[in-house]
Automatic annotation (TrEMBL):
Keyword Membrane included in the entry's annotation: yes
Summary of the function given for this chain in its UniProt record: Part of the twin-arginine translocation (Tat) system that transports large folded proteins containing a characteristic twin-arginine motif in their signal peptide across membranes. Together with TatB, TatC is part of a receptor directly interacting with Tat signal peptides.
Subcellular compartments: Cell membrane; Membrane
Lineage of the species this protein comes from: Bacteria, Bacillati, Actinomycetota, Actinomycetes, Kitasatosporales
Biased composition (Basic and acidic residues): 303-316
Domain of life: Bacteria
Keywords from the named record: Cell membrane, Membrane, Protein transport, Translocation, Transmembrane, Transmembrane helix, Transport
GO annotation terms (biological process): intracellular protein transmembrane transport; protein transport by the Tat complex
GO CC field: TAT protein transport complex
Xref: InterPro entries: TatC
Assembly behavior: The Tat system comprises two distinct complexes: a TatABC complex, containing multiple copies of TatA, TatB and TatC subunits, and a separate TatA complex, containing only TatA subunits. Substrates initially bind to the TatABC complex, which probably triggers association of the separate TatA complex to form the active translocon.
Name of protein: Sec-independent protein translocase protein TatC
Length: 316
């Protein structure tokens, strides 16, 4: 009975007291943390498979087939040996990989909890834009992650080619996983830039022609960003990050220009038959104050006996 009464008392616009907001935030955070912990436990069960998935591209690209006590040069060039350091290193790495897998695996749950907490305070149009942003942003992030996953082996080959003769390359596994994680995050977030421009255009903040005028500065800015954002310092990773972002930028500009033209055609056609035209609420001058006051004055009464009949004047 109490639960049904609470449901009936809910405001249709999502308004509630501060205590109820805090209680709802606590419940949703608890559900999100529980989902992350369950994902972390599952990640710990598949810890070795996750390690192999993340290290196989590097191992196949620059992994040494000989022990590190021998020469570090193979027939196909320089190589590196993946190593672990310290007694607690493997356990710490397992915890880190499991928690990361839990956050990634439970992302649908905690993203839904975040959306369910924020959505009641949004208007219908804002909800529509937010859903479109998430629907387009997730594939773009995954495309950036996939791109970085396949670029890293090439970048590793370029970097290891600078190895001096008779030198041994040791690749600590924890540093290697941190590098892979940073590249996935940087590439994934960088692929969201065109989506941000499109959203600004849809909300009327930036016009497509204006974005097109930025193309020189945008290319320079993306190149500089790629030089500082990529964890590696090789030109292969930098160009691999900058090139797709520039392509996506021009695609966003093209979409924005077409959207602006569609808006202009709609405005030129005027409102549809089932739409109300816009009202002109601009205030207008109605004349001097004296004119208005003169219109409201009552005719003067006459005091002469000729204008009175039976003691009453004409006005009465």
């Amino acid at each position: 009975m109490l639960k049904s009464a609470r449901k009936q008392e809910k405001d249709p616009e999502g308004r509630m007291p501060l205590a109820d907001h805090l209680r709802e935030l606590r419940n949703r955070l608890a559900k999100a943390m529980l989902a992350i912990m369950v994902g972390a436990i599952v990640g710990a069960m598949y810890y070795q498979d996750i390690i192999n998935l993340l290290t196989d591209p590097i191992q196949q690209s620059v992994g040494c087939t000989k022990p590190f006590t021998e020469l570090a040069k193979q027939s196909d060039g320089a190589c590196g040996n993946i190593t672990m350091s310290g007694l607690m290193g493997p356990f710490t790495l397992m915890i880190k990989v499991s928690l990361t897998a839990g956050v990634v695996g439970a992302s649908p749950v905690w993203l839904y909890q975040l959306w369910a907490f924020v959505a009641p305070g949004l208007h219908r149009s804002e909800k529509k834009y937010a859903m479109a942003f998430v629907a387009a942003g997730f594939p773009l992030f995954m495309a950036g992650a996939w791109f970085s996953y396949h670029v890293l082996p090439t970048a590793a080959n370029v970097l290891l080619d600078f190895t001096p003769d008779h030198a041994v390359n040791l690749l600590p596994l924890d540093d290697l996983l941190d590098l892979v994680t940073r590249m996935v995050i940087v590439f994934g977030l960088s692929f969201e830039l065109p989506l941000l421009l499109v959203m600004l255009n849809l909300t009327g903040v930036i016009a497509g022609r204006r974005m097109l005028g930025w193309w020189r500065g945008m290319i320079l800015g993306v190149t500089i960003f790629a030089a500082f954002a990529t964890p590696t310092v090789d030109p292969v990773s930098m160009l691999s990050l900058a090139a797709p972002i520039v392509v996506l930028y021009f695609l966003a500009v093209g979409f924005s220009i077409m959207n602006d033209r569609r808006k202009q055609r709609r405005e030129a056609m005027g409102p549809a038959d089932d739409e109300a035209s816009e009202l002109d609420l601009t205030p207008e001058d109605i004349g001097e104050v004296e004119t208005v006051s003169a219109m409201r004055t009552v005719p003067e009464q006459s005091d002469s006996a000729h204008d009175r009949a039976n003691g009453y004047d004409d006005v009465t």
